[in-house]
């Protein structure tokens, strides 16, 4: 009936919303990580080492 269709629609739009929020969150995290590693690279003066102590501390 109508209620089931509306419930399905609500569930679908909630799923879409959560998916979008997840994508936005990942983008923000990636951007922050990129900014942090760029700053760390600039601070240490070495752009050759792929990861920094800062990144190691946050991933563990």
User: How many DSSP-defined strands?
Assistant: 0
- Tally of domains: 1
Radius of gyration: 20 Å
Percent helix = over 70%
- End-to-end CA span: 50 Å
Instruction: Characterize the overall form.
Output: rod-shaped
Tell me the major beta sheet: none
Low-confidence stretches: none
Order of helices and strands: HH
Amount of beta strand: under 5%
Mean pLDDT: 84
Helix/strand class: mainly alpha
Number of DSSP helical runs: 2
Describe the structure.
The chain has 60 residues and is mainly alpha-helical. It has one domain. It is 83% helix and 0% strand. The protein is built from 2 helices and no strands. The protein has helices at 2-44, 53-59. The longest helix is centred in the middle third of the chain and has 43 residues, at 2-44. The model has no long low-confidence stretch (mean pLDDT 84).
Question: Any chance you could write out the topology, listing elements then pairs?
Answer:
Elements: H1 2-44, H2 53-59
Question: What's this entry about, in short?
Answer:
The protein is an all-alpha fold. The protein has helices at residues 2-44, 53-59. The radius of gyration is 20 Å and the shape is rod-shaped.
Output the keywords.
60 residues; mainly alpha; 2 helices; rod-shaped
């Amino acid at each position: 009936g109508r209620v089931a269709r509306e419930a399905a629609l609500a569930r679908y739009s909630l799923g879409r919303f959560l998916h979008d929020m997840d994508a936005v969150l990942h983008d923000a995290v990636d951007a922050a990580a990129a900014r942090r590693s760029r700053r760390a690279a600039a601070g240490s003066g070495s752009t050759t080492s792929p990861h920094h102590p800062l990144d190691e501390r946050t991933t563990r």
